[in-house]
Design brief:
The protein is an all-alpha fold and 360 residues long. It has 13 helices and two strands. Helix content is 65%, strand content 2%. Strands 1-2 form a two-stranded antiparallel ribbon. A hairpin with a 7-residue loop joins strand 1 and strand 2. The chain is globular.
Amino acid sequence: MLYWLSGLADGGDIFNLFRYITFRAGAAFFTALMFGFLFGKPLINFLRRKQKRGQPIRDDGPDTHFVKAGTPTMGGLLILSALLVSTLLWARLDSPFVWIVLMVTFGFGMIGFADDYAKVTKQTTKGVSSRMRLLLGFLIAALAGGFAAHFHPPALSDELALPLFKNLLIDLGVLFVPFAMIVIVGAANAVNLTDGLDGLAVMPVMIAAATFGIIAYFVGNLKFADYLGLHYVPGTGEILVFAAALIGGGLGFLWYNAPPAAVFMGDTGSLALGGALGAIAVVTKHEIVLAIVGGLFVVEALSVIIQVAYFKRTGRRVFLMAPIHHHFEKKGWSEPQIVIRFWIISLILALIGLATLKVR
């Protein structure tokens, strides 16, 4: 929105700064961060008054989780509010890719909100049915995939780009939209499964967002894309502003979510942020790189799939408990140990993902 001030620029005056994505990304970060600091406490107090008993705790979970009873959920509203305000203020709103990512983020956020609301009001760990959540998620993802294919350059539309290869593209044709649906819905639910410990999901999401913000900036810049051998997608550079706002909002939330958490992100935040990462990967043509950068989320999701499939087949468990972070809790790791070590893994995977930009 504030990008229009660049039209007032006359040479080297201050309004010229608004032309630069990097300046607006920095401004979006600090806007979202201050939003989180200013409105975090009032929102938490509001959620406590409304929810009273807080988020229900699983009966079969680790014993250490029962001390968290009464903690309010839906804290993801803080991140989403900061993200929306900052992105609308600082991003160029003539970029269709910004709107695609926003649509996915807040669409999945509303699904998560409905799920959290059902859990809190009914005081049960079962909210909206999995079938309904998936149906709505795939619908939003289908729209996003269709719009992305429409606004991508003709040479890239319906194509799958492979990391490490400069010119290799796989033509998915009509399968591109279903593929995009799987990426977006899969990312949303993988982050949702990871969000089981205080601060566990939000930091890896921010690390992944920072990585994909850089990727989006390079992909949307003709000179950088040509130098690195990337496929140029005009307009995706503005995603850096969105990613910066997500990081700022995430840090503002983490201030209150750090152990012991004053508020949980809930499905409101985890589904939305996971969907956002999936959407960014689709619009930047880096879907496979998401599996590397978001490898922690992939492992968390796979641990659940393996556990369920093996138990149904044999009646035995592979892990002491799934998702895998609960397995390590059962083995005696403390919550801070798991969280910090998983953060370190996320950072390593992000650096590997960035390395794919140069190794071609």
